[in-house]
Amino acid sequence: MYNNLKYEVKEGIAYITLNRPKALNALNTETLNELHVAFHDCEKDDAVKVVIVTGEGKAFVAGADIAEMCKLNALEGRAYMYRGHALMNQIESLQKPVIAAVNGFALGGGCELSMACDIRIASEAAVFGQPEVNLGIIPGFGGTQRLPRLVGKGMAKYIIMTAKNIKGPQAKEIGLAEECVAPEELMPFAEKIAKKLMAKAPIAVAQAKVAINTGYDLDMKTASQFEIECMTQCFTSEDKKEGMTAFLEKRDADFMNK
């Protein structure tokens, strides 16, 4: 089904592995389309509770496919950017948590892909960056917007305008990654976080994600009202009943069977 990805669902976790190692997992149009299908499948599959995205070989994703982009005119380039933005927005709006296990180079579109995910776990061998100005362009899959929201406007300008690479430990320091671990610990740690997320109330986790993502760009009054609406959705769920009942009964909540 996939030429450029490995897709597997195991024990509630969907593993999406970019699998173009000879091209350092670069995002060509076919790969973007396959990612769209994979995330659509994640959304529709009730067996999937959490998604982990990673890369095969020494790269997470080393960027967009420059060999393909080089041939595009302005209109074709615009359509390509729209395709990339649609994918990143799809990931960001997925009603399930998405973890980026960044194993190596996460440059250009790879950095943008990681930033669209909810949680970024970086290997100490990871390298983040937005090198587009070296190619006469700027980040085109949301990098100029998501990066400053994560690391601040000044640091984002510094990274993008100088094409500075950020290694895994520094990525954690500046807020580009939530955790940084040894390479051999990357997937076990990502799976540990995934299992922790699966133990929580799924509706509450989904509503927390949408409340944060949507409210971040709203004024405080509007965002607070939006939070109330998300909280109201939680009050209609069996998860709320189970969670509060378990608390009062001094036992662990069992959301998987509710």
Describe how the helices and strands are arranged:
Blueprint: E1 5-10, E2 13-18, H1 29-44, E3 50-55, E4 59-61, H2 66-69, H3 74-93, E5 98-102, E6 105-107, H4 109-116, E7 119-123, E8 127-129, H5 143-151, H6 153-162, E9 166-167, H7 168-174, E10 179-181, H8 186-198, H9 202-215, H10 220-235, H11 238-248
Helix pairs in contact: 1-3, 3-4, 4-5, 5-6, 9-10
What key attributes describe this structure?
258 residues, alpha/beta, 2-enoyl-CoA Hydratase, Chain A, domain 1, Lyase 2-enoyl-coa Hydratase, Chain  A, domain 2, 6-stranded mixed beta sheet, 4-stranded mixed beta sheet, globular
Structure explained in plain terms:
With 258 residues, this protein is of the alpha/beta class. Helix 1 links the parallel strand 2 and strand 3. It contains eleven helices and ten strands. The strands form two sheets. The protein has a six-stranded mixed sheet with strand order 1-2-3-5-7-10, with helices on both faces. Strands 4-6-8-9 form a four-stranded mixed sheet. Helix 1 runs parallel beside helix 3 and helix 4 crosses helix 5.
